[in-house]
Amino acid sequence: MIDALSLPFMQRALLAALLSGLVAPAIGTFIVQRRMSLLGDGLGHVAIMGVGLALMTGWAPLPVAVVTATAGAVIVELLRQHGKASGDLGLAILFYGGLASGVLMAGVAGQGAGGLSAYLFGSLTSVSESDVWIIGILAVIILVVTVGLAPRLFAVSVDEDYSRVLGIKVRLLNLLVVVLAAITVTVSMRTVGLLLISALMVIPVATAQQSFVGFTASFFGAMGLGAIAAVGGTVGSFYLDTATGATIVVTAILLLALSWVFGRWLRRSSRFIPYVEDHGHHDYHAAEAHDDSFAHSSGVKVIQHGDHLDYVHDGHRHARHGDHYDEH
Amino acid sequence: MTAPDPLSARGLYVSLGGLPILRDVSLSVSAGEAVALLGGNGSGKSTLIRSLLGLVPHQEGTVELFGEPLEAFGDWHRIGYVPQHSAVAVANATVREIVSSGRLAHRRPFEWLHRADHAAIDHALELVGLSGRAGWPYSSLSGGQKQRTLIGRALASQPELLVMDEPLAGVDLHSQSGLAELLARLGGEGLALLVVLHELGPMEAVLHRSVTLCDGRTVDVEPSGAHECAPGEDLVSVVGLSDPISGTLR
Fold first, then answer.
1. For residues B194 and A66, what is the distance between their CA atoms, to the nearest angstrom?
2. In a domain, B95, yes or no
3. What's the number of domains chain B is made of?
4. What residue spans of chain A are helical by DSSP H?
5. Which of B50, B70, B104, B151 to mutate to test the interface with A (most CBs of A within 10 A)?
6. Is the pTM of this model over 0.90?
7. Is A299 found in the same domain as A208?
8. Who is most buried in B17, B55, B90, B173, counting CB within 10 A?
9. CA A45 to CA A47: how far, in whole Å?
10. A215 and A312 housed in the same domain
11. Which residue, among A304, A328, A306, has the nearest Cα to A317 in the 3D structure?
12. Domain count for chain A
């Protein structure tokens, strides 16, 4: 770990990965809530066009990719907002057109698919010092906007109509989310890569929703999990000599698997007992002979019923009431 | 000079996708008044409240909120909108987080919650009887509790007019009377109510008067609540075409 950190290219790669790991799940939270989990993947394809254009013209790849992906994001959102029936088809043409033209332009530049692969799957050695500056500035802007507007973005993702009646500019915020997603995708192309960045926008969010209760906890939890996966994957790829992006994504998936396994024990939602309001009079049935261990046996569903707990078994609710049991 | 009505619409025409939905509808709700908006499926009730709130554009007529034309209205915190709980998709949020959204009408972008916001959220949770469940995930609630959460969210902005879309839909009978009691209490505190309802049910005691929509027009209704509706009759006659016993068309 010490020797890895002493290498300047490794320091730059780790910093870039950490920023991607924080930013991607932050904006990803709202992408997932809007059920557009694959948006990042499509925007990655459009960014490839920018990289191809940069390779052909000799411009710096990062700024060109930011511009093309942002333009792609605006087109996607406008198609969606206008509810075009052909929107789905339009997206497919945009995404594959971006991928094909990017590969084509890279070929014209004499780079072929090999020159592109560092951008597609991430590469530790490719992060230059000017890249780190651009990535840092863009990541800070995205973080400030996303965290600062989180309550509004949350309200819009839960209920667009209600948000409009609150006077929130819903269309503007929706446009902002996809533009920020486009910038996130391009900022991450050196570390995670354009084909895999979408995974870092989605998987930590899924893990956090498994592990935390509430929007705020999941939002910041996802950012933490993303940072762990990004830094862990970057260090792992250094020692294993593997593609950085692939290692980061596999790490994120391992975290998701862990949350599933431990979720069985930690499943917080089981603490939240369904509630039935007390409706007063109940028929009284002769109590069955049970001891309290019954209530704790597995497979018995617990319901809070007015002021006491019912235990559902054999199709009816069973409640301890003083020295006897009621069967509801 | 008296304060303008919270809600006043005159001669409203709305069509969606070229299909006329509302024709010459006028409706007003004065301060402290509780009004029911009744009508069958497809009568235009939901479209009417959506156009009153600016969620659906109207082609003709005027809508005024607190004396201001809808297009120029900016005091959105004076209005609390309560959609049907089935229309709200929440992946992972607590009751308190959802109620907190109601405060956004008072806050600028990038502004964090102040003490007054927290107090208003606590008060709203208390009003709807969910203080004990503030930290619970919304998805674990019953239909009645979800509806109460959404009412709490609307109350958090401290509105003067509450607009509700079928608050009793998907709510069990016992919770329905609880909701009616809650609305009666809010009405008693001077809140104006406009409630879309399928049938009056337990809400009858809460409401001052009702407006019935029929095929996109307001119709006169006898005090008993019974009314004749042309498209409803059409529907009956269409059903009457088939013989339920033999299952064949007459």
1. 48
2. yes
3. 1
4. 2-6, 8-33, 39-57, 61-81, 87-108, 112-121, 129-148, 150-158, 160-165, 170-187, 197-211, 215-240, 244-266, 293-296
5. B104
6. no
7. no
8. B90
9. 5
10. no
11. A328
12. 2
Contacting B residues, span 125-164, partner chain A, CB-CB under 8 Å: 133, 135-137, 140-142, 144-145, 153, 157
Is B247 within a domain?
no
- What is the domain-level CATH number for residue B57? 3.40.50.300
Q: Would the pLDDT of B128 be above 50?
A: yes
Phi and psi torsions of B197, nearest 5°: -135, 150
On whether residue A271 sits in a domain, the answer given is no
**Domain span holding position B226:** 7-240
Q: Is residue A274 part of a domain?
A: no
CB pair distance less than 8 Å for B109 and A158? no
Cβ atoms of residues A33 and B91 within 8 Å: yes
Q: Do B140 and A269 touch (CB under 8 A)?
A: yes
Mark yes or no for CB contact A148/B109 under 8 Å: yes
Residue given tokens 């990004």 in the structure block: A230
Cα–Cα distance measured from residue A209 to residue A316, given in angstroms and rounded to the nearest whole number: 32
Mean of the per-residue pLDDT values for chain A? 83
CATH number of the domain where residue A138 is located:
1.10.3470.10
What SS3 class is residue A63? helix
Higher pLDDT, B43 or A286: B43
A184–chain B Cβ distance below 8 A for any pair:
no
As a whole number of angstroms, the distance between CA A251 and CA A228 comes to 9
A194-230, pLDDT tens digit by residue? 999 999 999 999 999 988 999 999 999 999 999 999 9
DSSP B242: B
